[in-house]
Design brief:
Number of strands of chain B: 12
Radius of gyration of chain A: 16 Å
Shape of chain A: elongated
Strand order of the largest sheet of chain B: 2-5-9-6
Number of strands of chain A: 0
Distance between the termini of chain A: 51 Å
Helix content of chain B: 25-40%
Oligomer: heterodimer
Number of domains of chain B: 1
Order of helices and strands of chain A: HHH
Helix content of chain A: over 70%
Largest sheet of chain A: none
Radius of gyration of chain B: 32 Å
Strand content of chain B: 5-15%
Shape of chain B: globular
Structural class of chain A: mainly alpha
Largest interface: A-B, 39 and 36 residues
Distance between the termini of chain B: 48 Å
């Protein structure tokens, strides 16, 4: 089962790399926005891996906390970076600015 | 911040168009048919990785990305597959390299630091005399003769603890005193039966007293009459070490270390509890040992998680059975190679000190050997042999004892206050015991003093065993290093070696917060009795090697 977890994470990792590569040629954002987005993605995947193993070993508290402490902040970081650093640029572009 | 505008603002779709545009610019001849289109697209894709002259006829600097005449400067403004794949390759490569470096760093950290000097690994003060086995708590408690010889020990303990207490009388009814109560989880007939069944092979083999350090038992006997006359010659010391460790592994040991015999860690004199007589190494032991092989075998995580309930004793008793089995097999293996060998459980010498010397772990606050990846949830056995053409292991430092200085979860979980606390002077770390009553004359009779370590009061520990009518195991269960065999625990283990002290405190608090190390929790008993669920179609080997529960 652990091997399946790593396989799924490998797919997620690949999708993340492709997603960020694609975004990097579609979106211009300051370096710190990329740093937060990539860091957020790392936290999301780390939390999934942590939770997967914790649920697998039957320690559900650890799994839940892994999602709360790692994946949660990761998602929050990505959403905030998008909201404050990336989205304004997109709107500006759409409106011709 | 702006999106990269393409003339028709198609967004992501224009990615798919890029190869065709580029293909035409790269002069890939278009052909008809679906198959040809695919071939053309692929050829275009691979063409993107080649240096090509720009459409303007000049050199395409910086990789030659055709960009509709814009050149390298316009690369970002003209998204192309080449940029996409280039960044994917570079980004993925960097991420993979980072992961690889983290893995390598963690692996090095988990390997520990080799300590060349034995005196650095086990620091001592003054001349260390071997421990008299008659002062080992379980030897004393199970010997009527020793109790009669030292009535003052019972009197002093009773007086200081303000209770009626007698080591031998308590020990003689141990594990049969308290009747089960089927309304109390962990103390039911089911748990008691499991407990007794776990020990039964050793009782049947008349060897269970090796847990009290009784030497020369039936399974771990001293008889050397079956030593082969022809001595097997190994090609090298390393080959010999690998052969011994391979044998240990196949019988169920998860760690095996080889060290020179050190008289300081042997019991001397030895004591035959059953015959009430002292034994000497020179007169009674069949040969002069040169080497001690130390082996560790894990105890079941979910059973130990039920401590201090009787259920946990299933793991402890089974651990002792495996100790006797492996020590017996290793001794027989060496005798089969023509060398003298005697297997030992708790008898003959101090397993923790030998475990440290053999490089398989470090001594913790709970006075037990902590093995990386398993923590103190191991049982140890030893084999004394005269074989010495072998590569000896060196002690290792994983920073675990240092972690203990600021952790103290075991001491918090100890129901009898037998373990030194973080708040104690020097955090309880010293050459002499610092626990309650340790300054009373004659109170520390059971301690091996003069060794720098955490000194525990085994008398108090044993007192709770009698009250509980079973061994306890709370310190093992609560230990921050007692974790199932999963990657995130190894990563935490690796990070403790580099993390500063204040983070150790934080990590030790996080451990119970994340749901690990709880003791006295009836839900763990319920969980244990469900660990057999799904065994027929188990998706993991983890509960087959007794390192984690149902998976």
């Amino acid at each position: 089962m652990e091997s399946i977890q790593w396989f799924v994470l490998g797919i997620l990792f690949t999708l993340c790399v492709l997603g960020f590569s694609y975004a990097s040629i579609r979106v211009k954002a300051p370096w710190y926005a990329w740093a937060v987005l990539i860091g957020g993605a790392f936290l999301v995947m780390f939390g999934i891996a942590w939770a997967g193993s914790s649920f697998h070993e039957d320690i559900y508290t650890s799994g839940a906390l892994g999602l709360t402490l790692f994946t949660g902040p990761g998602i929050a970081a990505m959403v905030l970076a998008w909201r404050y650093w990336v989205a304004p640029g997109l709107k500006g572009a759409d409106s011709g600015n | 911040m702006t999106t990269e505008e393409t003339p028709d603002k198609k967004g992501p779709q224009d990615q798919s168009e890029a190869p065709e545009n580029q293909a035409s610019e790269l002069k890939v001849p278009p052909t008809g048919g679906e198959e040809d289109k695919l071939r053309t697209a692929l050829r275009s894709f691979f063409k993107l990785f080649e240096r090509q002259p720009s459409s303007g006829g000049g050199d395409s600097t910086g990789g030659g990305a055709p960009s509709g005449g814009g050149g390298q400067a316009d690369l970002l403004d003209d998204p192309s597959r080449r940029t996409f794949f280039k960044r994917a390759a570079i980004g993925g490569g960097i991420a993979l390299a980072g992961g690889g470096l983290t893995y390598a760093g963690a692996k090095v950290a988990i390997s520990g630091r080799s300590v060349d000097d034995m005196d650095e690994a086990i620091k001592t003060e003054g001349t260390i005399k071997p421990m008299d086995q008659r002062n080992v708590i379980l030897t004393f408690a199970t010997s009527k003769a020793l109790n009669e010889k030292h009535p003052e020990r019972n009197e002093q303990y009773s007086k200081l603890q303000n209770k009626k207490f007698h080591f031998y009388e308590g020990a003689s009814h141990f594990e049969h005193r308290v009747p089960w109560d089927n309304s109390k989880p962990g103390y039911t007939q089911l748990d008691k039966a499991l407990h007794h069944a776990a020990w039964n092979p050793l009782k049947s083999a008349e060897t269970w007293t090796m847990a009290h350090s009784q030497p020369n038992t039936r399974v771990l006997g001293w008889d050397q009459s079956d030593v082969e006359k022809e001595k097997y010659e190994f090609k090298s010391e390393r080959d010999a070490a690998w052969a011994i460790k391979s044998a240990a592994r196949v019988w169920g040991a998860v760690r095996c270390g080889i060290t020179r015999r050190d008289r300081r860690w042997d019991y001397d004199p030895l004591y035959d509890i059953e015959k009430s007589r002292t034994l000497t190494w020179e007169r009674d032991f069949p040969f002069e040992p040169k080497t001690v092989i130390v082996m560790a075998m894990p105890m079941d995580y979910d059973a130990m998680a039920t401590a201090p309930f009787w259920t946990a004793e299933a793991a402890i008793g089974h651990g002792y059975v495996v100790m006797a089995q492996i020590a017996n097999q290793m001794a027989k293996f060496l005798r089969g190679l023509g060398y003298q060998a005697v297997g030992a459980g708790n008898d003959l010498g101090m397993s923790v000190a030998y475990g440290v010397a053999a490089g398989i772990g470090e001594a913790g606050r709970h006075s037990q050997l902590m093995v990386p990846g398993i923590g103190p949830r191991v049982r140890l056995c030893k084999v004394y042999t005269d074989f010495e053409f072998v590569e000896y292991d060196k002690p290792h430092d994983w920073g675990m004892a240092k972690f203990c200085l600021s952790c103290g979860e075991c001491a918090k979980a100890c129901p009898s206050n037998a373990l030194p606390k973080v708040e104690d002077p020097g955090s309880g770390w010293g050459y002499q015991p610092q626990y309650e009553f340790s300054d009373e004359p004659g109170y520390t009779w059971n301690n091996h003093t003069g060794v720098l370590k955490f000194h525990s009061d085994a008398k108090k520990c044993f007192d709770f065993w009698l009250e509980n009518d079973s061994a306890c195991g709370n310190c093992v269960t609560a230990c921050t290093y007692n974790e199932p065999d999963y990657w995130h625990h190894w990563l935490s283990m690796a990070s403790t070696t580099v993390a500063p002290g204040f983070l150790h405190t934080l990590m030790s608090h996080m451990h119970p917060m994340f749901g690990y190390g709880a003791t006295g929790d009836p839900s763990k008993v319920k969980k244990f009795w469900e660990t057999g669920k799904g065994m027929r179609v188990n998706s993991s080997m983890k509960n087959n090697i007794a390192t984690a529960g149902r998976s």
